[in-house]
């Protein structure tokens, strides 16, 4: 049962990031309000994209390794993925939120 919970958590975060990346934020108009920098760099857009792409990629790996470990493959890799990738997401979210202001 615990394996299904871990699979569900990873699937939630992958689908959350995928919906934000590919469905809800397809237009560039949502970042026009934050485009107030004089040098032309939209830090809010860059921070948001860094955060979403990191979340999408970094949670896809535990999703795949969790599914494999449920069938008896890649158990040690699954443990390593669940140790490292949530930390990467946390650090990247901190940096992205700092970039967004």
Can you walk me through this structure?
With 101 residues, the protein is an all-alpha fold. The chain has one domain (2-26, 39-100). It is built from three helices and no strands. Helix 2 packs antiparallel against helix 3 (75-100). It is elongated.
Number of domains: 1
In whole angstroms, how far apart are the ends?
41 Å
Helix content: over 70%
SSE string, helices as H and strands as E: HHH
Strand elements, count: 0
Over the alpha carbons, how many angstroms does the gyration radius reach?
16 Å
Total helices: the number is 3
Oligomer: single chain
Query: Mind summarizing the main beta sheet?
Result: none
Proportion in β-strands: under 5%
Show unreliable segments: none
The dominant shape is elongated
| Averaged pLDDT | 85
> Which class of secondary structure composition applies to the elements?
mainly alpha
Would you kindly provide a brief summary of this structure?
It contains three helices and no strands. The relative contact order is 0.16.
Topology, pairings included?
Layout lengths: L1 H23 L18 H28 L4 H26 L1
Key features of this structure:
about 100 residues; mainly alpha; 3 helices
């Amino acid at each position: 049962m615990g394996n299904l919970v871990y699979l569900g958590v990873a699937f939630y975060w992958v689908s959350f990031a995928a919906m934000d990346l590919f469905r809800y934020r397809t237009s560039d108009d949502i970042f026009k309000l934050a485009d107030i920098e004089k040098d032309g760099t939209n830090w809010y857009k860059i921070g948001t994209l860094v955060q979403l792409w990191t979340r999408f990629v970094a949670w896809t790996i535990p999703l795949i390794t969790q599914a494999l470990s449920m069938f008896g493959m890649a158990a040690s890799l699954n443990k390593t993925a669940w140790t490292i990738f949530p930390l990467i997401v946390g650090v990247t979210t901190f940096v992205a939120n700092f970039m967004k202001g």
